[in-house]
Amino acid sequence: MSTFQTPRYILESKRQCEVSGMDPDEILRPAVNMTDSQLEEKRESYSEILEVVSFFSNKLLNSLKGTPILLVVSDENGFVLDLAGDKTIKATVNQLGIKPGAQFTQEDMGTNVISLALQQRHPIQLIGTDHYHKYLQHIACYGVSFHYTDVDNLLGSISIMTTIELQNPLYLNMLSNVVDSIERELLLRKQNRKLNIMNQVMLTRTRNAIIITDANGIVTEFNEFAEKLSGFTREEIIGRDIYKSPITGKYFHEVINKQKKFTDVEMKFENNNGDMRICLFDAQPIYDNKNSKIIGAFAQLRDITERYLIEEKYNYLAFHDELTGLPNRRYFHNELNKLLNDYNNNKNIALLLIDLDRFKLINDTLGHSNGDRLLKLVSERVKNCIQPGDLLARISGDEFIILLKNINEVNEATKVADKVVEQFKSPFTINHNQFHTTASLGIALYQSDGTDIENFMVQVDAAMYKAKAQGRNGYTVYNPDMYKDSSKELFLETHLRKAVEQNEFILHYQPIFDIKAGKVISFEALIRWDHPELGIIQPNDFISIAEKTGLIIPIGEWVLEEACRKNKEWQDKGLPPFKVNVNLSTQQFLKQNLVEVIKEILEKTKLDPQYLELEITESMAMDCKYAEKVLRELRNIGVQISMDDFGTGYSSLSYLKRFAINCLKIDKAFVRDIINDRNDAQIVRTIIAMAQGLGLKVVAEGVEDSHQFQYLKNQQCDYAQGYYFSKPIPAKELEDHFYTIQKGFKLLN
């Protein structure tokens, strides 16, 4: 028997059975059965519907392989059109007259899953004694009706039948997901038939190049934009064999002969006029809807040449200093990281950090434009000191760094340092005025003891400051005695306190996308420490220290206020309103005045609470009573709540039902291996189904490739976030490129 209160419509159905005089001990058989010809005719008229239903039903059966269930498909009048699944159950119900062509009505069959699913138009379940007749009370049934959703036209139902011992409410979720897929596919096919009528209009009005072939690869359509893009006329292309095209031929061959589809394939080619073009190519087979035979192929090419060139320029600027043209800090860190990852003892790596002496005085005296001219002159001189293959980068205002990639001993590095110092002995000429300046250099040789980039930079930085302390205009080689207490944690802790006082933190923002709507719905605010000497420090390197020292409270409140302030500023500038997600630390969450702090920040920044989403972790919910109280207070002021890293902690279904949570974020550790790890795929699938059953949204974190994204789309995941779509970006980049980010997701989607 169902563990839930029996729904009213089931009670009413059983009452009607009793009133009509049905005997609950009687074994009923369908009173109306189609003839073979009627059944064949019905199936023929339902052929497209049955094809779609069969495809998704088989996927469901495959996912439940080994589980004794029977899947029953009916039309809108309750006539059974198909039975699939467990052979034993199928044979049993056949003996009861339940077979294709049999009609299920309440008048003939009593309380049954098919009739109720068709009547109620929502998912239903009949478990055990929910059935009126006793011979059905040993089974569990789940049913969902399906429709043409554009006109709400009832088409039929799909039901699952199994033994009462195997009852599971997840069957209802799974059926609902299957029906969602069926209804979308049926609507898509219906719309495609309408679109076929509009093809000619589309071919002439679209801004994409359209190519259509027959089943033999002979071009039958080549629109005006295809002419402009390719440099060929329509007359030159119509009737030609597309397989012979050096650009698209192999793709058409795969589409027509192997029924493959292609989406967003980037193509670079020189067209017939000698112009370089960059396009995104899509292609798919064209089927005869009646018998599902391939009758040709459809392809379109979207010209992204202009966007591509802009992005190339942007990517160049992202890794190069705009003033000097040298590689920047990001480029330098990438190169050094590659070297350290491939490090072996057969070669040595050295860093030379160059800091201009008294550059601030030069800037203040001569002006910033002349200071910029000096930096250009310095970069040109220092370039002459290094060998091809070595790297010179500008990593901050007046700091340059040299990466020597393959030296044998330290004196090779000091020889380069001598050359650099020598370059500063000659005067610099700016606006016909000559003046002298000097530089201080630090040298550090990589130690083959697992030293990471950050410690390597700390070493060369310490050596440079030692050179300054010794009178400037020279260099010093790092040795461990320079830091008697070389504890990285102590060093960062000391600097972290200054960082809080001097506001050295910045926020980067990573977009979260609504998969179905194809748009940005939120940005997660992620803190970075912009250290004046070490550059950008990632949160993994300082958050634990902040938590130990209690600095996490002021840092966390700064993040909240800055994220809210920035979001309100973007809204005022006309960007579409979206949420900003902010992670709460455990200490913040457990602080008694948390709700008041958030209220004050929202009032101060004038941000509407609906545009703030707070992310908590499962561990914060261990004190269930406190967590429930705080979360409800936050929800009452209009703030949204997400549970971050879901699946790694201690949450239970009872907690999730009690807490005022809007969304679950699946931990990236599960998402990472969903394609290759069955267990992770099952966990992700279960979390999504469970969340949907609880009315919660789901975000998949850490999406890194198209295969993961496609899997999540297939599982009806609501939202996605990860480097596949966008890395975390600075606020200015978000503001300048919001629509590009959104458009990029639509292309991926």
Short description:
The chain has 749 residues and is of the alpha+beta class. It has 28 helices and 27 strands.
In words, what does this structure look like?
An eight-stranded mixed beta barrel has the order 18-19-21-22-23-24-25-26, surrounded by five helices. A five-stranded antiparallel beta sheet has the order 2-1-5-4-3, sandwiched between helices. The protein has a five-stranded antiparallel beta sheet with strand order 7-6-10-9-8. The chain is built from 28 helices and 27 strands. Helix 3 runs antiparallel to helix 7, helix 14 crosses helix 15 and helix 20 (about 550-570) packs parallel to helix 22. Strand 23 (about 640-645), helix 24 and strand 24 (about 665) form a beta-alpha-beta unit. The chain has about 750 residues and is an alpha+beta fold. The chain is globular and about 110 Å long.
Biggest sheet record: 8 strands, mixed, barrel
Structural class: alpha+beta
- Percent helix, as a range, is 40-55%
Which shape, going by the Cα principal axes?
globular
* Structure annotation, total helices: 28
Global mean pLDDT: 87
Uncertain segments: none
The total count of strands amounts to 27
Distance between the termini: 44 Å
What value does the Rg take, in angstroms?
Answer: 34 Å
Classify the beta-strand content into a percent band. 15-25%
What order do the strands of the largest sheet run in, or round the barrel if closed?
A: 18-19-21-22-23-24-25-26
